Amino acid sequence: MYGKCGSLQRAWDVFDAIPNKDLVSWTAIITAYARNGHGRQAIHLYHELESQGFHPDAFTYTAALDACSSSKDLTQGKALHSKIRERNLESNAAVANALMNMYSNCGFLDLARNIFENVKERNVISWNTMIRANTQCGHFGKALELYKEMDLRPTPATFVNAIAACCGLLDLSQGKIIHCQVRSMGLEENAIVASALIDFYGKCGRLDEARGVFDRIKHRSRSAHVWTAIISAYTRSGHPARALEIYREMASIREIHPDAVTFVAVLNACSILRCLEEGRQIHRMIARDQKRRSMLEENEFVANSLINLYGKCGCVEDARKVFDLIKNRDVVSWNSIISAYVQQGNHREVIHLFQRMESALEPNEITFQSVLASCSQARDFDLGCEIHARIDRQGSITLARDSKLAIAVVEMYCGCGFPDRAQRIIEEQRIPDSCAWTTTLAAYAHESRLPEFFELYLEMELHGVDFDAVTYVCLLTACSHAGMIDRGRDFFSSMADDRKISQAVEHYACVVDLLARAGWLTQADELIRVIPFEVDVETYMALLGACRMQNDFCLGCRIVRRVLQLNPCHLGAYSLLHNMLTNFAS
After folding, report:
1. Contacting residues for 475 by C-beta, under 8 A, at least 6 apart
2. Protein fold of 1-121
3. Could you read off the pLDDT of 133-148 as tens digits, one per residue?
4. What is the pTM of this model?
5. Whose CB has fewer CB within 10 Å in the chain, the N or C terminal residue?
């Protein structure tokens, strides 16, 4: 009883107080530890049981296999399988189902399938286990085939697993067929089935239908799972503000208690909106509640969501406090805190954390992306090269298979002032992403390597790379620095005429700068007057600087007046005005 309620300590106290422990009591305590996520302790208890001379039965083996499944301990699982085979218990439905579950959770779907095919009398749990195993391993089509083959009455778990397979395929039509079957069996208000349907419709972009499922559930039947599903659906569909409104509505209902999954969903919405105060309130709620406090230390999903929120909001010290509390940090925990320090620009701490992480577990592609971004910011060429070489050696992660990582390497070389190396990566990996090309283009411009800049531009044209608004900022800036007025104007015109890209204020600012640098002050002033946007101070200052260089006192005074209307305390404008007055007086 205590094990099922999650009171593991009480369950142990009762077990420990039994003077003459029998097989049933040992099996019960192993089951309690396995069900509450303490697989390794449950396996240890199983070995203790054997050492005391007990002979496990089907129930004991089932509990021990569940422990291997939760801890993904394939070695122990195979050892148990050998003993089960010796005792001819493979045909036992519960044991067979536990074996299937263990092998699939350890990533060995073929072994799970062999067990399933050898079971003579499959019950609904056998089918559910195999459908879920295929779904977990990404074999969504096979999972749906099994669902259709099943000749037994489906249970809520069957529908949940089949809907999850439809989710993986984004198969709206099949999902709707299953929804009709759910409705015909009167299970639409079942909490786990309704949650699965809401999640499915949300991932398929059908928010109205997800909301319809939610609204058809009677208010008293809405569990925390159902509320969490609709919160996640709104967040995923680009409506995080509405997701927070729904959470507040949920929080106002005394009978509903948000769980760890709810907090993760809400914190994700807070992160998107940079809603720091609401995130802090949730953090305080968890920290003050004795039952929930352990989430910060033991539930890495909640902790990681908090780290992500604080990192995005620039509160790195708060993120670090949460990180330091986590007992078992996973790769996401490390990536989240490293990313927070990258956003802060603290390269030294990024390197320190990266080195600590390497001693604990293997970095993944997200880790490398963050560290490469930090190398780019700090122009740490040596470490950037080392990371690139390590990626090439590793084999499991390659630039050819991971375009985001390839772009991160490109951006690192550009940030460190080596656009030629970045270009080599683009050409070797045949990266089609316009962001990588444009970043390299901008790096050539920044390094004043205009011949290479225009060579790369021609290559982009040749390879059919999609130009975007940022590409044109680079092109116009390069023309401005090179004094190429006609070409710059051609680029500006081709944006709307050839590429159908809307000209924004930054593009007009580039042309103003182009004309001003060339000494075409009147034309630059005329262009400013017709810009269909509010002109910013920087654009005026570009023209003002040219007025000083060209000794155009009259136009310079008019521009100063416009700048001071926008920013009466702009020191740069006063400084340039002083210089112009000095020149004019002399």
Report:
1. 441, 457, 488, 491
2. 1.25.40
3. 999 888 999 999 999 9
4. 0.77
5. C
